[in-house]
Write a structure and sequence with these properties.
about 240 residues; mainly alpha; two-stranded antiparallel ribbon; globular
């Protein structure tokens, strides 16, 4: 293989990854708005590993996964493997977004009793309710702090995996058609991931951006991202 051809293939793979994953910036930034450098490096590593796994997964699908999906769907069906993968990713993202929303609600509006029972409205002070008094000093939920505990590494793993599934719709056809080699795809994808990570870190250095991101609950970002993916996929039918 000529060096020029290899560089060209890497460039194509990097461009495809950037084109399909530039929206990762929206949901990745909340996980990088952290003061602990160790947590930052952990999240960067997790995102990079997930993207690498997705790339390797596309290699496996190109070798037999597409044929398996096509065997399960009618030949005249509009439900191509790419459509099925993208739609599934969007639906699971929406479901995961609702899970994050429930956790955000419990964190900001409820507190469990000592016996681990049902959550109750957070109170502070000596609030009493009797015939002559109304319940007072209820702690009203303040501005959302972007999801708090929901922005964990485990949440990043789920969002990154589901959010990057649409990469397969670009990688697999290119591999099946032998437009690029496996090595070109892996290297190009890694370079694109580095660009995305550096872009996110650069944006987190901007205080106005950080304030905006911290004010948006993670579940909202995930739900919107999942809904956009589903709508975009259905419109392609």
């Amino acid at each position: 293989m000529k060096l020029g051809q290899f560089i060209s293939g890497v460039g194509i793979a990097m461009t495809m990854k950037l084109a399909s994953s530039v929206d990762d910036v929206v949901w990745l930034i909340p996980f990088l708005v952290v003061r602990d450098k160790q947590v930052l490096m952990t999240n960067v590593t997790v995102y990079s590993l997930i993207c690498t796994i997705q790339t390797l997964l596309s290699l496996g699908i190109s070798k037999g996964g597409v044929a398996a999906i096509e065997a399960l769907t009618p030949s005249s069906s509009k439900w191509s493997p790419e459509i099925i993968i993208s739609l599934s990713a969007g639906i699971f993202l929406i479901l995961f977004g609702f899970k994050l929303a429930y956790e955000w609600y419990k964190e900001n509006f409820c507190e469990e009793d000592d016996d681990g029972g049902e959550c109750e409205l957070k109170l502070e002070g000596d609030a009493l309710l009797n015939d002559d008094a109304l319940l007072t000093d209820i702690k009203q939920p303040g501005p959302a702090k972007g999801g708090g505990e929901s922005r964990t590494t485990s949440a990043l793993v789920a969002v990154a995996f589901l959010g990057s599934l649409d990469d397969l719709t670009l990688f697999v056809p290119m591999l099946v058609g032998k437009s690029i080699s496996y090595g070109e795809l892996i290297l190009g994808s890694l370079l694109a991931v580095l660009i995305i990570v550096f872009l996110c870190i650069f944006l987190t250095a901007c205080k106005p951006v950080v304030r905006i991101i911290e004010a948006i609950p993670l579940f909202f970002i995930v739900l919107v991202f999942g809904a956009v993916l589903v709508i975009k996929t259905l419109l392609a039918l």
